[in-house]
């Protein structure tokens, strides 16, 4: 990719409502910053309640018009293949947007674009495979089920992986004939507009997909509380998820919640330590640790602690720090506020008795928002750094004496998004995976899996599943149809 030919991006981005690009009703805008430099790179139209009202009305009209629903599912799938084609064609533009407003490398940004495109091909291929079933009730009856869309799906995506997360929920919604109003993150919204552009170019029915940018307190709150919303999909913090669920409870709105994590991997004594170290580094330092499923804890046998820490510190110190556009290993965190929060948690951990074997501070000599790759040792399980999500490149190491203690430590937080196991022994892997309380368990490779594998949390990490075939079930509700096909009398409740 030629960086020198790709330094400029559009300076103003409009919201996409009812099949067209529009300004905010009051003309307000949000300034978008490059986290690698701290400088403004663009503005986006700032959506508020009036804009949400317009978008929801558009999505409702599209749903009630039944254009998506009445399509043969195979044709809905073909439409989604077209979306994917356009996403792929725009991959270089998307990569630059992801790099400049999110801090990713150009390679990482392009991978995001290609992954987003694949969500549309994957779920496009499943659009004609979501089936009901026949239920035998005897010769006098025909009974069957229909997987029915909910209607208007409100979707709120986070700032760390806005494109992929938006793509997976929009794709599921379209495959199941729901319509969408999506709020993009105010810190890094640019890549989500390419989904709107791809939908527009592909000929998605007007109003079926609406994408707006706004702040949570007015735009997001107006969306989830809107009386014409039928379904909510949210990825983000536990605190915000809790507030959304309160709003959903008022109207009994079904929701999919993918919330925070404090995911741990257990390293057993027989593990390939080099493999575990490399996998752990990828698990915690990718995208500067701003990953909900990051491997933020490593639980090691006491006898191996010194060796493992030494290798991890060496690995951390080998990583370059700087802007993603220059291809560095440790890229910026999203904002100055996020950098302050991470550094504050690190300083508090040291004051509580933890030891930063590596890092623990903001990176010196850089103008953007950079945190050193950090490894904490000498921790106790009750310390905040070992229990609460940092959302930065910060690894907590805990030690154990026996396997049962290791499992207890891994399960000893309020979260249950992901977990990991490092071992050469298959029986040990199965034993540990069975006991770890997490929606996804990785063995010998953090982030093992892909678009095909169901993803979601247990405990405070949320409920419902994204990705994989299982995700589609979260976008439909079962309708049963019972038909008496011969003459006869009345039935009775319960059969």
Briefly note the structural class of the backbone. alpha/beta
Whole-number average pLDDT?
96
Strand order of the largest sheet: 14-15-16-13-12-18-19
**Any guess at the CATH architecture of the largest domain?**
3-Layer(aba) Sandwich
Give the termini distance in whole angstroms: 65 Å
Whole-angstrom Rg: 24 Å
Biggest sheet, in brief?
7 strands, mixed
Textual characterization of the structure:
This protein is an alpha/beta fold and 495 residues long. The protein folds into 2 domains: 276 residues, Aldehyde Dehydrogenase, Chain A, domain 1 (3-Layer(aba) Sandwich), CATH 3.40.605; 181 residues, Aldehyde Dehydrogenase, Chain A, domain 2. The chain is built from 15 helices and 22 strands. The strands form 6 sheets. The protein has a 7-stranded mixed sheet, sandwiched between helices. A 6-stranded mixed sheet has the order 9-8-7-10-11-21, sandwiched between helices. Helix 1 runs parallel beside helix 8, helix 4 crosses helix 5 and helix 5 runs parallel beside helix 6. It is globular. It starts with 11 loop residues before the first strand and ends in an 11-residue tail after the last strand.
What's a quick, concise take on this entry?
The chain is α/β, with parallel strands linked by helices.
Write the layout of secondary structure elements.
Blueprint: E1 12-13, E2 15-17, E3 20-22, E4 29-34, E5 39-45, H1 49-65, H2 67-70, H3 73-89, H4 91-102, H5 106-126, E6 141-149, E7 152-156, H6 162-175, E8 179-184, H7 192-202, E9 209-213, H8 216-224, E10 231-235, H9 238-251, E11 255-258, E12 263-267, H10 273-285, E13 295-301, H11 305-317, H12 336-351, E14 355-358, E15 374-377, H13 384-387, E16 394-400, H14 403-410, E17 415-416, E18 418-422, H15 426-435, E19 440-443, E20 458-459, E21 462-463, E22 476-484
Parallel strand pairs: 1-5, 7-8, 7-10, 8-9, 10-11, 12-13, 12-18, 13-16, 15-16, 18-19
Antiparallel strand pairs: 2-3, 4-5, 6-22, 11-21, 14-15, 17-20
Helix pairs in contact: 1-8, 3-5, 3-7, 4-5, 5-6, 10-11
């Amino acid at each position: 990719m030629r960086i020198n030919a790709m330094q400029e991006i559009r300076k103003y981005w409009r919201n996409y409502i009812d099949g067209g690009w529009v300004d905010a009703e009051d003309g307000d805008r949000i300034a978008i910053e490059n986290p690698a430099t701290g400088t403004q790179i663009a503005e986006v139209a700032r959506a508020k309640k009036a804009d949400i009202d317009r978008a929801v009305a558009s999505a409702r009209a599209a749903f009630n018009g039944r254009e998506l629903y009445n399509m043969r599912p195979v044709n809905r799938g073909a439409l989604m293949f077209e979306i994917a084609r356009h996403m792929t064609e725009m991959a270089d533009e998307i990569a630059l947007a992801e790099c400049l407003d999110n801090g990713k490398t150009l390679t990482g940004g392009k991978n995001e674009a290609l992954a987003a495109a694949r969500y549309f091909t994957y779920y496009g291929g499943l659009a004609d495979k979501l089936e009901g079933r026949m239920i035998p009730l005897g010769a006098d009856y025909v009974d069957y089920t229909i997987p029915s869309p909910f209607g208007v799906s409100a979707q709120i995506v986070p700032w760390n992986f806005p494109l992929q997360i938006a793509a997976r929920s929009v794709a599921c919604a379209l495959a199941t004939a729901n319509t969408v109003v999506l709020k993009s993150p105010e810190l890094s919204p640019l890549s989500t507009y390419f989904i709107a552009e791809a939908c527009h170019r592909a000929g998605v029915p007007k109003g079926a997909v609406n994408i707006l940018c706004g702040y949570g307190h007015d735009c997001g709150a107006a969306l989830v509380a809107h009386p014409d919303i039928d379904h909510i999909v949210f990825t983000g913090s536990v605190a915000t998820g809790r507030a959304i669920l309160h709003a959903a409870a008022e109207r009994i709105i079904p929701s999919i919640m993918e919330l925070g994590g404090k995911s741990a991997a257990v390293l057993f004594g027989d593990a390939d330590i080099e493999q575990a170290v490399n996998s752990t580094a990828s698990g915690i330092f990718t995208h500067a640790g701003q990953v909900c499923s990051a491997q933020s804890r490593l639980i090691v046998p006491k006898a191996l602690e010194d060796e493992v820490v030494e290798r991890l510190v060496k690995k951390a110190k080998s990583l370059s720090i700087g802007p993603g556009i220059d291809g560095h290993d440790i890229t910026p965190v999203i904002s100055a506020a996020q950098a302050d929060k991470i550094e504050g948690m690190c300083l508090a951990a040291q004051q509580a008795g933890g030891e930063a074997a590596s890092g623990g501070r903001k990176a010196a000599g850089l103008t953007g928002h950079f945190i050193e790759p950090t490894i904490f040792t000498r921790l106790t399980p009750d310390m905040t750094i070992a229990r609460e999500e940092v959302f930065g490149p910060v690894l907590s190491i805990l030690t154990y004496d026996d396997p049962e203690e290791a499992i207890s430590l891994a399960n000893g937080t309020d979260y249950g998004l992901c977990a990991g196991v490092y071992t050469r022994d298959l029986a040990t892997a199965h034993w540990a995976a069975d006991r770890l309380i997490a929606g996804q368990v990785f063995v010998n490779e953090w982030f093992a899996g892909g678009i095909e594998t169901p993803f979601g949390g247990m405990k405070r990490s949320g409920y419902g599943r994204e990705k994989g075939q299982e995700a589609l079930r979260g976008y439909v509700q079962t309708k049963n149809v019972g038909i008496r096909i011969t003459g006869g009398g009345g039935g009775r409740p319960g059969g």
